[in-house]
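## retry 2 of 3
previous attempt timed out at serialization; input unchanged, resubmitting
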Amino acid sequence: MAQIGQYNQLPIVKFVDFGAYLDAGELGQILLPKRYVTEAMALGQSVDVFIHLDSQDILVATTLKPVVTVGQTALLRVVDINDAGAFLDWGLPKHLLVPYNEQHKRFEVDRSYVVTLYLDPYSDRIVGSSKLNRHLIESTQDLDVGQPVELLICGRSDMGFKAVINDRYLGLVFRDDAFKPLHYGEKTKGYIKAIRQDGKIDLSLQPPGDKGRDRLQQKILDHLNSHDGQSPLGDRANPDDIYKTFNVSKGAYKKALGALYKQRLITIGPEGIKLTGE
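## retry succeeded, writing output
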């Protein structure tokens, strides 16, 4: 079944002077305006289109690709504000409306905000909201510890950074786990660090537990082998230098050094680290 606010493969059933009509099943026949019809299109051919309401609230199709679809979250820029709310650039000629009651604070023109898209059940309009906790899940038991996920940083708190997880959930990266600068609207890879008893989701930017440390230990050994068995990045190294080389926090790096030292694979001194026997 064709879905509003999503990409659909729909067959052409009729050409008219002002475009082509597509068979959208229960949604009926939907117009693909002439400006999106190409000479290569033929009767019966399926076309990849996005369905939305036009300025007259009539369902139409377009071959344009919006930045975000219903059920997804993105950082979008405000291009206009009027009595209805704020209008954001999402890649279509008709801008995305974020009503005032769906703004976590009053939007300003030319500023960008993290919004999630949903379909208004009464009007079938595609609407944006920055009140993410209204539309995303804040607690779950459906995720696994250590599971890799896609994150979109959507806010800060005293404890750390709030993040959208896989466009569906909300979680928190604690400050101690944010070993690199994180910015509002930034996309980054992450991992499920823990699911609390109340279902709240804790996140990490690196694999939690022994799995992450084992991988880091091997990276350190590979680094030493490619640098004549030694490195100035000891346990007193600058956190920024550690991150530039290994993409991890200083805390995680020191744990990995400690594990390698206990295995007698490296020595640690004031000048840095060395492979044993070097």
